[in-house]
Design goal:
homodimer, mainly alpha, DNA-binding, 184 residues, 9 helices, elongated
DNA sequence: ACACAATTTGAGTATACACTCCAAGTTTGG
DNA sequence: CCAAACTTGGAGTGTATACTCAAATTGTGT
């Protein structure tokens, strides 16, 4: 772990290099050499700060998953529109992180089941949040209905995100809003 | 290219080995050694039948993309329900191929744009088919509306497929039908 | 200014990978 | 039954990869 300023800065450069490489070319592009070249660091320095390449990648992926969820603290408040708006904002403000997020689920083979399980846990938590927001808006909704509706809307949002990752010209926010109208 | 019976069988074993490895563990799992071991073939035989590992993978991916589209010949007929039903059937009947399909877009050779572009072309074709089916059901629909609706429904279906790839317990067909209902 | 821990360097290691080569074996049509 | 066409085994090649290490340099609290 970095103690001095230089070390902390180097660490940040390595993380940023890893993130941009993952966003541009997926796991395949994030080789140690590529990361070190982009961060302007020699491999020895890399291993002074990280135990393995995997560690750097996991940190980037974990951070990207976390970034999707706006303020997990504010549980129990917030409307469905807030949640959808937060998702849209995430894509507009942090496209690089967003792309890593979209890639993470399918590409996470590196740590085999670990990454996938983490992603699934995250998804389930999100379904709960969306479902609760839906129930708050319509108190006649059963728990089961809420889960089904939330799963449907989140599926649509993730599908549109996937579409955006394929082609950044795609107007994600426009379709995300339409999906919220249609599936809520 | 294989001419004799033995060669044709070996080729089939290699393709099947590649497909199952891709479905189980993504690109990372589909090493030459793993493919050859599973197909019970030595690397020399592999290269007698394929120019490269890439060729085998591309064939599997291409086949999986093709398998999603039911009878491209029947253009101009078929209802939206038929198209959705075909997509659902694809997941139920060919789960292995389906998983490769879901993985293909981002994970393929994420660096080489070839796979991504092919996937995008395929998606656009599908949006057209879905849009036409929607217009056939509601003749007052403009072309633009059809594209938007089709993009939305396909986004949802793909997102649910993505969800299924994460966790095969997920009842894909149930949610796919619910999504389709919203557009009826 | 000093001691010493943190950081950097860069050559070096081991390994896994895709791919080659060709002698020996098998299948096929005539 | 033969010869040509095809297939196979498996040792071997070159290369890219993640990772190590000891020595040199730099940052920090006192």
């Amino acid at each position: 772990m970095a103690r001095y300023q230089v070390g902390i800065q180097t660490e940040a450069r390595i993380i940023e290099a890893t993130r941009s490489l993952l966003a541009e070319g997926g796991m395949e592009a994030a080789t140690l050499k590529a990361i070190c070249d982009r961060a302007e660091v020699r491999s020895g320095s890399f291993y002074n700060l990280f135990d393995s390449k995997e560690e750097a990648i996991i940190r980037v992926v974990r951070e990207s998953i976390k970034a999707v969820d706006p303020d997990p603290q504010q549980k129990g408040t917030g409307t469905l529109d807030d949640l959808v708006a937060a998702y849209i904002r995430f894509f507009e403000e942090k496209p690089k992180v967003a792309k890593v997020y979209v890639m993470a689920a399918l590409t996470g083979e590196s740590s085999s089941n670990g990454a996938r399980r983490r992603f699934l846990r995250h998804h389930i938590r999100r379904v709960e949040r969306f479902g609760e927001a839906m129930q708050r808006a319509d108190s006649s909704m059963t728990d089961d209905d809420a889960v089904v509706s939330a799963e449907l809307l989140l599926g649509a949002l993730d599908g549109l995100a996937f579409r955006w990752a394929l082609d950044q010209e795609f107007e994600f926010s426009k379709y995300a809003l339409l999906a919220a109208e249609k599936f809520a």
